[in-house]
Amino acid sequence: HSTQDWEQRQEEDTLLIERILLLVRNVLHVPPDPMEEQGVDGDASVHDRVLWALHISGMDDLLKFLASAQMEQQWALHVLEIISLMFRDQNPEELAALGQGPAGAEHREDTQELEILRQRELAEKRARALQRPSRHSRFGGSYILQGLKSIGDRDVVFHKGLHNLKSYSHDLGKEPRRVPRRRQAA
Question: N or C: fewer beta carbons within 10 Å in the chain?
Fold first, then answer.
């Protein structure tokens, strides 16, 4: 049957699609019978064989299309029910581990290598930080200039380094007074 837009579909096409989805749902809905399924450990159950048949026929791709297509939203609940029945007896942790396989093992090895490299880099960075001399302090100390009075009767406290003492004046650190342009000397 060729794909048709929903406007061009006949009523019987819509009914056929719904019946097919209900048939798939009902087949997947059949509960497992432990007495009937006494196979060897690791043997695929009837449910697993049905899922494999759905995969071989391309029905799983069709379900993905119906679930994601904007125009096919009327089938969303049927598709959701079918997907939930597909994963009925599955353990999420086992499914996640199955999906990884050899690629997952490679990924874990890569992650471990990256972690080892990161730890080595952090250790080198710490060693470099220990070798480096401590950062120079900008604080040059405070000195009292005896014989030079500040406001009041106290001696001046000088906060710059001693090498700056020659350039000391009481106006150090003050904003220079701005003289308007017309009052400046010619």
Answer: C
